[in-house]
Recover the amino acids of this structure.
């Protein structure tokens, strides 16, 4: 039986820390007006970054896999503030 990655990721659960998200965009204007590649949208495996029709990059941390790809890929502007979630919050992997 072949199982797709998306099906496995759907099994994960995420405890949202509404008081203190572990990922933030420092200056959204940089993403909208200065960053031409917007690599975070393409590279985030969880799809937490989306591009709106008006050019704004929107970050929704629910479902973040805590891989850190966004902080590494944003090397031109270093516009991503990323840290591990507080204890008890974040992704809960079902398949290890």
């Amino acid at each position: 039986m072949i199982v797709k990655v998306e099906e496995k990721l759907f099994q994960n659960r995420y405890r949202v820390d509404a008081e203190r998200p572990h990922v933030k965009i420092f200056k959204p204007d940089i993403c909208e007006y200065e960053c031409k590649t917007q690599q975070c949208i393409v590279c985030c495996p969880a799809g937490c970054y989306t591009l709106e029709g008006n050019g704004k990059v929107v970050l929704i941390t629910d479902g973040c896999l805590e891989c850190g790809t966004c902080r590494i890929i944003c090397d031109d502007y270093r516009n991503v503030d990323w840290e591990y979630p507080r204890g008890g919050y974040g992704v809960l992997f079902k398949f290890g």
In short: The first helix runs from residue 5 to 11. The radius of gyration is 14 Å. The chain is about 25% helix and 20% strand.
